[in-house]
Specification:
The complex is a heterodimer of chains A (368) and B (336). Chain A is 71% helix and 3% strand. Chain A has 14 helices and two strands; from the N terminus they run αββααααααααααααα. Chain B is mainly alpha-helical. The chains are: A mainly alpha (368), B mainly alpha (336).
Chain lengths: 368, 336
């Protein structure tokens, strides 16, 4: 998105403001017509999505195939559709599918959330990790594990925490307001409180309980319940189209507010929807995987690189997020097998240097 | 110069800060996590009387704790004031920018490699703080974030979360380290004795001296880089100085008490509210207000969940985070 700020502004405005030269369709776009309705599709973005989809399928095959019993990726994919040996089908569908599905869906949700937040705040560093939802979910899950007067399962508590934090941040930041950043920093502050609470509980708890709770503080896909994964999968399925629609509108919010408004975008309402959508996606993802960092930062970046500057790459970001998470989980499971490294630690270790490079390289004054 | 510097407002500010500090020190000496030893006994002990239990509690527990709190407060308050002025950003704070996290991560790594909290090497914490500080300020300058407080904080948050992850990896794989630093990583000034913090004190004083020397150049820098150059300052040199000073201050504070957030955010803001934005005055008031804030938080940490104590880092986050939210909620971020 380096050269985006100038080029996309000019190209978007020239597309929109110069109907006189419009003949059929602009270059680089596909035009679909269904009677009265028509849709412009960005060719590069769709090719990028296709590429990432292929990568996702390959990774699903690899993830399903790797483990104590090795299964060839293709057989694993076939077993997913009830083809092949009964044993293989059992291993793939009953044992491994939940984990792979959980990882992929959590990654997709984080990727989408990151893409929405980054576009909204016009800031490539905005990230579902930093807005406190992670910390709240962690705090609630840890509370459930170390037994602070609750009987709810950690996943359910994490979801509760995420929703609580989202509403609280929203209330405290005074609605969507005219500045997206206020929401981000309010979340950051509230997240600090939750982080302190988590630390307090971990320090107070008996050592065994603290060790049990620890995976929730780093992000892990081990032993996640099928119910929550199903919930997350439905959430992603429902919210993907919504996010795509919102993303299409958000493309105009990259222009100055006044311009977007004059083009017919209700900027404040759109902000509200975006934040609610991003928050719910993050909440669901964290309820399944715990605070897996860096996905929401890196996936939209890759999506943008591949899809080009013209669109808000919701679908590429979702697919890239799914790829990253599954890849990280695959590495964590196989690299030091039989010791398993939680997925959150893999993403942090791989993402950390990337983040540093990203921060140190970004040249002066560039914005999303 | 001298007449403008010692304005009436400044005089009142300094006196008020000193008065507050005196009250808070008394509170810190007099209030414990139970009511066993009250003010009367503390006064008796300080005059050389009192029974053994009272003497032990006051002289071996509360006095060291108060002294450590003062040092930590001075270090974090002045580091915050320097950073906010140098980054021209009211949200620049050692904790938020990842300086404390850098320092803490370095300490965790050193402990995992075999060191122990009791004979902690101060320079390790300082190197970590220097790394965190240089990354944060380097990023701020390189990407022209100086005029955008939010981006700087986001960069710092990203950096902090990465460093926290590195710590997590170590804690997850190394049980001994995990047990040793579980409390330390929250930040606390309880249970430290004076001899273990002694190596950090000269470092802290050095950092403070550098900070005081930098106040004048920083005041010139506040007028803009070109003006500052015209006035004979070298902006690059000043920034490097700020970085070193902040690293010394935060590193020694972290070595003493673990990473304590939000002190460097709240204290300079209060100082500026009292004596105005001039860094020369704000720095001095921040140095006096820092200990008050830390000790106040520490006193609260003893009384909110009696008879047990709450770690200081939790209390300072509980006080500081709402203030952060309030700052952001205010219509316009106060420009520096």
């Amino acid at each position: 998105m380096d050269r985006l700020s100038m080029t996309s502004t000019t190209s978007a405005s020239s597309d929109l403001l110069a109907p006189a030269t419009f003949n059929g369709r602009p270059a680089g776009l596909w035009l679909l017509r269904f009677g009265r309705f028509s849709l412009l599709l960005d060719r590069r973005a769709w090719l990028a999505s296709l590429l990432l989809l292929l990568a996702t399928i390959v990774l699903i095959g690899l993830s399903l195939g790797s483990g104590t019993v090795k299964i060839a990726p293709f057989d694993a994919l076939a077993a997913l559709f009830n083809q092949g040996e009964t044993k293989t089908i059992f291993i793939v569908r009953d044992l491994r599918l939940t984990r792979v599905l959980g990882g992929g869906m959590a990654g997709a949700a984080l990727g989408m959330a990151g893409c929405l937040l980054q576009t909204l705040s016009r800031n490539r560093l905005a990230n579902p990790d930093t807005i406190g939802i992670d910390n709240a979910a962690t705090a609630f899950a840890v509370a459930s594990v170390v037994g602070v007067s609750t009987t709810l399962a950690p996943s359910a508590m994490a979801l509760t925490g995420a929703i609580t934090m989202l509403s609280l941040t929203f209330a405290l930041s005074g609605g969507a307001g005219t500045r997206g950043y206020r929401f981000l920093i309010t979340g950051l502050g509230l997240g600090a409180i939750c982080g302190a609470a988590t630390n307090l509980m971990l320090a107070r708890a008996p050592i065994d309980a603290a060790n049990t709770a620890f995976p929730w503080t780093v992000g892990s896909l081990n032993n996640r319940s099928g119910v929550v994964v199903t919930l997350l999968a439905w959430g992603v399925v429902v919210m993907l189209p919504l996010a795509t629609i919102v993303g299409k509108r958000l493309n105009l919010v990259r222009l100055p507010d006044a311009v977007a408004q004059s083009l017919g975008v209700r900027v404040n309402r759109l902000r509200f929807f975006t934040i609610v959508l991003a928050g719910s996606l993050t909440g669901l993802a964290v309820a399944v995987a715990g605070p897996v960092g860096m996905i929401g930062l890196a996936a939209p970046e890759l999506g943008r690189r591949l899809a080009g500057p013209r669109t808000v790459p919701i679908i590429p970001a979702a697919l890239a997020g799914a790829c990253f998470t599954m890849l990280a989980d695959l590495l964590g499971r196989t690299l030091f097998s039989p010791t398993e490294i939680p997925v959150g630690i893999v993403t942090a270790l791989v993402g950390g240097p990337y983040l540093l490079w990203f921060l140190l390289r970004t040249p002066r004054g560039k914005q999303l | 110069m001298a007449t403008t510097f010692l304005s009436r407002r400044m005089l009142i500010g300094v006196l008020a800060a000193l008065g507050l500090l005196a009250i808070v020190v008394l509170l810190s000496l007099g209030i414990g996590s139970d009511n066993a030893i009250g003010f009367a006994q503390v006064l008796a002990v300080l005059q050389g009387a009192g029974d053994d239990q009272a003497r032990m509690t006051v002289l071996d527990l509360r006095v060291p704790r108060t002294i450590i709190g003062c040092f930590v407060g001075v270090a974090l308050g002045s580091a915050g004031a320097l950073l906010q002025s140098a980054a021209r950003n009211p949200l620049a704070e050692p904790g938020l920018l990842g300086v404390s996290a850098g320092s803490a991560t370095a300490v965790v790594i050193s402990i995992a490699l075999g060191a122990s909290l009791d004979n902690l090497q101060v320079w390790i914490a300082i190197v970590g703080a220097l790394l965190g500080c240089s990354v944060a300020l380097g990023v701020a300058r390189m990407s022209g974030l100086g005029d955008d407080p939010i981006r700087l904080v986001l960069a710092g948050a990203a950096l902090s979360s990465m460093l926290a992850a590195v710590s997590s990896v170590i804690l997850l794989t190394d049980q001994r380290t995990a047990d040793e630093v579980r409390f330390w990583t929250i930040g606390a000034i309880a249970g430290r004795n004076l001899s273990s913090i002694r190596p950090a004190i000269p470092v802290l004083l050095l950092g403070l001296a550098v900070a005081l020397l930098l106040a004048r150049p920083l005041a010139a820098l506040a007028l803009g880089e070109k003006v500052a150059s015209g006035l004979g300052q070298r902006p690059k040199l000043v920034r490097t100085g700020v970085m070193i000073s902040v690293a010394l201050l935060v590193g020694s504070a972290t070595a003493m008490a673990g990473p304590i957030g939000f002190v460097g955010l709240v204290v300079p803001i209060a100082a500026r509210a009292i004596v105005g934005p001039d860094i020369r005055r704000a720095l001095i008031v921040a140095v006096l207000l820092g200990p008050s804030f830390v000790l106040l938080a520490d006193v609260l940490s003893r009384i909110v969940a009696r008879p047990t104590e709450t770690p200081l880092g939790v209390i300072s986050a509980l006080i500081g985070a709402p203030i952060l939210v309030l700052i952001v909620r205010s219509q316009r971020l106060p420009a520096l």
